[in-house]
Amino acid sequence: MSSKVPFVYMPPQEKLVIVYEDEDLVVIDKPAGLLSVPGRLPEHQDSAYLRVLAQYPQAKITHRLDMATSGILMFAKHRDAEVAVSKMFQARTVTKNYVALVQGKLDEEGSVDVPLITDWENRPRQIVHFELGKSAKTLYRRMDYDAVQDVSRALLIPVTGRSHQLRVHMMHIGHPITGDQLYHPDAAQSTLGRMALHASFLSFRQPLSGIDVEINGSIPF
């Protein structure tokens, strides 16, 4: 018999906070615990996308955050914006920064450059696989260190955008993210009640207006 605990989806019900908006784009601060897009089951339909769609009927999601990750999430208001933003992400002209609390004393700065692949027998987990994995690179910098808790506050900058990339990369170098139920062996000991990973910063040149945009979100931990 499987020892897996059944997943019960209980998304937060607070109103979405809009942190940036223009005629083409709307950017929200997604709370931890809310899916970016609907799941397959009827009880997993509540999501950031459907909530935004209720207000902006033509909206399209441009990227995703894991359910357990909070922070900046951008939507296109119409098809032309969706296409333009997609090209922007493909060209890697978007800067995304994350803040995380990780176990142990992280080096002052560094990078993780190891390929990732889905662990098909344990989905949605991802694993490092040097032969079959897709290239993945993350830059990191230690912001501060709490010696009492043995926890570092880290700035994480994904160069690529693989699924669970930041989470697996931090685990790979021995500094799993606090509260990460998939990749931290002692996640249950966290007192935060959530995974400590937040999409805190987004910068890009608005592809339709040409305006330079920088969005800084408040960090909830």
TrEMBL record:
Listed InterPro entries: PsdUridine_synth_cat_dom_sf (IPR020103), PsdUridine_synth_RsuA/RluA (IPR006145), RluA_PseudoU_synthase (IPR050188)
A GO biological process held by the record: enzyme-directed rRNA pseudouridine synthesis
GO terms assigned for molecular function: catalytic activity, acting on RNA; pseudouridine synthase activity; RNA binding
Coiled coil spans: none
Limits of the Pseudouridine synthase RsuA/RluA-like domain: 24-171
Transmembrane regions: none
Domain of life: Bacteria
Pfam assignment, any one: PseudoU_synth_2
Protein's name according to its UniProt entry: RNA pseudouridine synthase
Taxonomic source organism: Acinetobacter chinensis
